[in-house]
Amino acid sequence: MKLRGWLVTGLVVCIVLAHVALWRSGMDTSTKLAFTVLNTIGWTIVLAPILLVDKWLDAKRGHNQDRD
Q1: 47: closest CA among 10, 1, 17?
Q2: What residue segments make up the domains of the chain, in order of their start?
Q3: Fewer CB within 10 A of the end CB, N or C, for the chain?
Q4: The model scores a pTM over 0.90
């Protein structure tokens, strides 16, 4: 696996562990749900473009290697 794959996997594991810790805390359920939704939307906004650009770059690299 590439370094980028390991970094993304590590980041996702940290995010999941943070959500587990949040849900095991003593906060109200409505507060936990609000934080979870906000966090999920935030990470989607951050990670989705990164992953899509990474896939696009891999496709462009493959296309350029075919031309050589």
Answers
A1: 10
A2: 3-67
A3: C
A4: no
